[in-house]
């Protein structure tokens, strides 16, 4: 009897191991297929390549090619543990979210790159404006987000990237925006509502109060559709806000092309990464509406 029980336990353990192996294989195949689909999606929508390297140095490289890119915007959440600091470089535009978290953007020749400096256990939202000199040059524009971390913390790297790049043949026609997103499962990401963020970011309270979420926005639709705005305008730190009902549009000043983040107002921080969309190419649209 004892031998029978032992045999059953052994067989059960073998079955468990087999199930684990099969599930692990399926999971790996799913990840690879997801990566392949993601690369195809990036290339089809943006004409861009995305590179997913090993866990020790996860890099997303998006090359927008030779089209006239009229706007690019990225939102990323980083939840890292025990990561080493990145070396900051001279930048064209730096938008500090907090004293402990800073995003640096710099342009060199015909490329534009982003480097991040994010300490342990932190989250951040990146706001990026693309210098017009790069957009008008009709040359390759490359955006790189590069994060270094320990292999055991690879699962803690949790970005969602959203980008919409509008390529214009002329100023008379602005095509409907296309969307592209990239996400990795992010375990144990704490929710952070607007009030918590404002308490943490008291130095930037004016910006948060104005935008209701750094940037707030309107319904995502074709730019050909009419959008009515009230006359309310306010300018803080070189950013201009146009308000309409429950949505707000925040754009760059004259030195940068217009950028917008589309989100639901007053939604929690964690939720914005799953539902946000980004729109670029608003300068001609805004000129026609407000000038």
Task: List its salient traits.
2 domains, about 25% helix, three-stranded antiparallel beta sheet, alpha+beta, about 290 residues, disordered C terminus, about 20% strand, five-stranded mixed beta sheet, single chain
Can you offer a commentary on this structure?
The chain has 291 residues and is α+β, with helices and mostly antiparallel strands. It folds into two domains: 1-46; 47-290, no CATH class. Helices cover 27% and strands 22% of the residues. It has six helices and twelve strands. The radius of gyration is 22 Å and the shape is elongated.
Reported for the largest beta sheet, the result is: 5 strands, mixed
Radius of gyration: 22 Å
Question: What structural class is derived from the secondary structure elements?
Answer: alpha+beta
Query: How many domains comprise the coordinates?
Result: 2
In helices, the fraction of residues equals 25-40%
SSE series = HEEEEHEEEHHEEEEHEH
**Major sheet: order of its strands?**
1-5-4-3-2
Q: Unreliable runs, pLDDT <50, ≥5 residues? A: 18-28, 41-291
Topology:
Layout: H1 2-46, E1 57-63, E2 93-98, E3 101-108, E4 111-117, H2 132-135, E5 142-148, E6 160-162, E7 181-183, H3 194-200, H4 205-211, E8 233-236, E9 239-244, E10 247-252, E11 259-262, H5 269-275, E12 277-280, H6 283-290
Parallel strand pairs: 4-5
Antiparallel strand pairs: 1-5, 2-3, 3-4, 6-7, 8-9, 9-10, 11-12
